[in-house]
Write a structure and sequence with these properties.
The chain contains 6 helices and 2 strands. By secondary structure, the chain is mainly alpha-helical. The longest helix has 30 residues, at 149-178. The structure holds S-adenosyl-L-homocysteine.
């Protein structure tokens, strides 16, 4: 019996999105109830969020449900598929851990809550931006999993754009808010990958 690996990849990706939505649902509802003291919805911030969502989510959806991108398909092999699926599982685990540690301090964009606390425990002991680690792992996992040049790599471009436009600004915001506490935290942690970056 042969499996249609492209179909398997599509199903795995859709299951991943559903699981991600489940992990994110409660933090979303809860954090909405906590008032914000600083809200940054600049044009740059909006652009980042849109391009990231298009790359990570909408382009793969277009590939899965339409035939627009079929010209960019390639033949999938089992090892790449398994590696991609494994990375998506790691990504889900990371999302779960970041939401657990960040709690109400989480937001989609660059905001600070009233009474914002700096979180440096749980997975935040290891790196300063574990949620961005989770998104990188998602983007890399999708590149392995989806046998299509456009849908597979759009996540890396989309999230990469958000990451590089945002992370410096986010750290500046945290430094302005938490001063020496954040500087000390920066000295003992890496940004995204423990020991590397
Ligand atoms: N960059 C982090 C958080 C992403 S959510 C990560 O990748 O895990 C974005 C919001 O989280 C920011 O608006 C900021 O208010 C908040 N934030 C980022 N790092 C934080 C920390 N160490 N403690 C508390 N809040 C933090």
């Amino acid at each position: 019996m042969t499996f249609d690996l492209e179909l398997v990849a599509k199903i795995i990706w859709l299951l991943f999105i559903v699981a991600w939505g489940v992990i994110r649902y409660r933090p979303n509802v809860k954090s909405r109830k906590t008032a914000k003291s600083v809200v940054s919805r600049t044009l740059k911030e909006r652009f980042s969020m849109i391009i990231s969502a298009v790359g990570l989510g909408y382009i793969p959806l277009v590939w899965i449900f339409t035939d627009f991108l079929d010209g960019y398909d390639y033949t999938q092999n089992t090892m790449l598929l398994v590696m991609g699926a494994g990375l998506l599982l790691v990504s889900l685990r990371l999302f779960r851990l970041t939401h657990k540690a960040l709690g109400k301090m989480w937001s989609h964009s660059l905001d600070l809550r009233e009474d914002h606390k700096l979180v440096t425990s749980g997975i935040y002991e290891k790196v300063r931006h574990p949620m961005y680690t989770a998104f990188w792992v998602w983007a890399i996992g999708a590149a392995f999993l989806l046998p299509n040049w456009v849908a597979g790599f759009s996540g890396l471009i989309g999230f990469g754009t958000l990451f590089f436009l945002r992370v410096g600004q986010e750290e500046d915001m945290m430094k302005a808010e938490f001063g020496d506490e954040y500087e000390a935290y920066m000295k003992r942690t890496k940004k995204v990958f423990p020991g590397i970056y």
